[in-house]
Amino acid sequence: MFQGDKCIAIKDDTNTNGVQLQTWTCVDGAVNQQFLHQGWSIVTLPTEFISWYLHPGLCNDLTGGINTL
């Protein structure tokens, strides 16, 4: 479900460690904007995570644990 017209996307569709996430215009069916939630309906850190649909073995991380923009 879209909230507005912006989505989180994997930058350049790259599946390497350290690739950045970006905010991008939502594109229906864009594989770089599809994610999985492993766990319950609400993310409970640190035992649950959100991963990229195409590469579920890769996890998202906050650099240095910083959670602000």
Automatic annotation (TrEMBL):
Organism: Mycena albidolilacea
Protein name according to UniProt: Ricin B lectin domain-containing protein
InterPro entries: Ricin_B-like_lectins
Lineage: Eukaryota, Fungi, Dikarya, Basidiomycota, Agaricomycotina
